[in-house]
Amino acid sequence: MEIKKIVSIVGVRPNFVKLAALHRFLEKEYNHIIIHTGQHYHYELSRAFFECFELPEPDYNLEVGSGTHAYQLGEMVKRIEKVLMKEQPDLVIVYGDCNSTLAGALAAVKLHIKTAHVEAGYRSFDKKMPEEVNRLLTDAISDLLFAPTKTAVRNLKRENTRGRIHLTGDVMVDVLLDYMKIAMEKSRILKKLNLKPKEYITLTFHREENTEEKRKAQSIVKALLELKEYEFVFPIHPRTKKRLKKFNLLEKLEKSDNIKIIPPLNYLDFIKLEKNSKKIVTDSGGVQKEAYILGVPCITLLLTTGTIETVEEGWNKLVGVSIQKIVNAVKFFNPRNNKPRKALGDGKAARRIKKLIDYYANNIFEL
């Protein structure tokens, strides 16, 4: 197998973070082409991340935008296929678990292009989550599986996936460690929002299961309104804002004295906000990992997680949307230990992935 041209396919905020870890290594030796599906298109969720990480403009922006899962996947596969047929890459890399990930893998495999999945093997074992279905299908058809944790490796082996499995660590650790010092020095988010370290809680939620079902959204909002003695900072996702407004819940949060709703933040501002939080409440897989790496207690508004290590080591508590469980966790949950948080890797995942790609590029045999 000879690798000269590599295409990375990205579409959402967590993808851009993972791309930032790999691009600087790949661009030195390969013709590295970036396809942005346009799944996330708001400035704060897309362009701001490319600017923050000093990533080049995507070679292609497919501008798919929002829509149903079927619409997004269909449009992405069609548009990605056209680009891949034009560029004829030797390897396609997909990242994470969004619709762009699955669409990229499907388009590549149908064209018989070797495919690598960064963040392979994470499992929540809940197929009601669109992300879980995307992970399973992407891993089933990819040739190279870059697994972030030992648990992820076990999951892939148990599923008898056909791809070559490699334990690399999570590239999100790489990026967070690389940009932490810059964020602490350059970000002025605490001053801008008049916040004091460890005196507020960072809140995010955007998962489909929590925003599309009125009952679940109501439970989360009710729990937040009960916690009047705690200050919450809520960088609100555009989809969450739209749904809360439809359910007549947004106004209740806006009128609350303890909940500060702000637009989505760029990467540097957000990790500084996380680092200085007393606790974090979220349903984001990426934020769960960031909280663990930063050593901030995390309360997850789900009953499953792809990074079970964060729960097993006592840094993450799964509460779902139970009002009482959310309230109790905010009041009483604290990590059980102060052991080193190494389950997600040591910050060298991107280097390992680059070396593995080099290995396959220089050893001519079929994957």
Protein architecture, described:
With 367 residues, the protein is of the alpha/beta class. It folds into 2 domains: 180 residues, Glycogen Phosphorylase B (Rossmann fold, 3-Layer(aba) Sandwich); 156 residues, Rossmann fold. 47% of the residues lie in helices and 14% in strands. It is built from 17 helices and 13 strands. The strands form 2 sheets. The chain has a 7-stranded parallel sheet with strand order 3-2-1-4-5-6-7. A 6-stranded parallel sheet has the order 10-9-8-11-12-13, with helices on both faces. Strand 12, helix 15 and strand 13 form a beta-alpha-beta unit. The longest helix has 19 residues. The chain is globular and about 60 Å long. The termini are close together.
Number of helices: 17
Q: Report the CATH architecture of the largest domain.
A: 3-Layer(aba) Sandwich
How many beta-strand runs?
Answer: 13
Q: Mean pLDDT, as a whole number? A: 94
- Uncertain spans: none
User: Helical percent range?
Assistant: 40-55%
What strand order characterises the main sheet? 3-2-1-4-5-6-7
The whole-angstrom Rg is 20 Å
Fourth CATH level, the homologous superfamily of the largest domain: Glycogen Phosphorylase B
| Secondary-structure element series | EHEHEHEHEHEHEHHEHHEHHEHEHEHEHH
Structural class: alpha/beta
Estimate nothing, just give the exact number of structural domains.
2
Strand content: 5-15%
CATH topology of the largest domain: Rossmann fold
